Amino acid sequence: MPKIENSGIEIGLYTLGDIGADPVTGKTISAGQRMKEIIEVAKLADEAGLDVFGVGEHHRLDYATSSPSVVLAAIAQITKRIKLTSATTVLSTIDPVRLFEDFATLDLLSDGRAEIIAGRGAFIESFPLFGYDTNDYDALFSENIDLFLKLNKNERITWDGHFRSPLRNAEIAPRPFQKELPIWVGVGGTPNSAIRAGRLGVGMTLALLGGDPMRFKPLVDLYRKAGIEAGHVLEDLKLGITGHGYFSKTTQQAKDEYYPYYSNYWSYVNRQRGMGGGRMSRADFDQMTAPDTALFVGSPQQIVEKILRQYELFGHQRFMAQIDIGGIPFKKVAEGIELLATEVAPIVRKETRK
Question: Which ranges carry the Luciferase-like domain (predicted)?
């Protein structure tokens, strides 16, 4: 694997597989079509030379991807070099043994390209679905990540926990192609989550969905401080920055094209969360996409400037954009991939290669 300092930061894409009506045409594609388009997007990203592709996990009818490992396994067969990660696995409500075996299998199928971003989940529908109590939200995550990290290091394991049956000299198979599966913890904005990721010595993926990026700097500092205090070296404390993005030839064109889809996305996400479903005003949207905010919307030059400004702030090793939300048609997503790969990535990699 190339060293970060020689190749610049990694640049990639992720999808949560939301299924929303196109606000321009009023049409909604099927889950099957959405999944086929996700696989095609990953293929385009691989061919364009992007570094990583992530697939999210939701257990609702308005999302297409409840099983990231299955979707990523399909992607593995038509791609050659791009890394394949969950984005994110709801680790609180999945058996860590099953998760490890699924991603070890993906790793073998992809010749060592599998990764996991684990989180507690922004949605809680998986708790009743799989028989878990939301009161155990944090305790489940703590126990499951502890077990997963042990599974990652050991072919046989003896283990006792609170939420699942004990393991007695259990064989954990298959073993991955890589020595260990890379694991990151997805963090939204909770200091305790950042501290935990640091103490565990795993990567941290930070979701920047708006506002001033500077407000996330304390989380990054907490993560690195906790990691070093726990005895981990700074080089192993990898940081990823993720966020919503839309790219066009000019910043004004990007804003004009993206606004209906972005407003649509937040309208139905807020409804899903029981917060009402009003549309975002254009004035609010223009404020959210200003040059000094975290939202990656604009011309290639604007996006380069935003990524590099954040790189100065965080010194991260990975940037991933979500560019397919709110019913955006496949053609627009494909155009975004081309701009990201040909006009944004080369400059960002060159500037961060030092």
Answer: 10-313
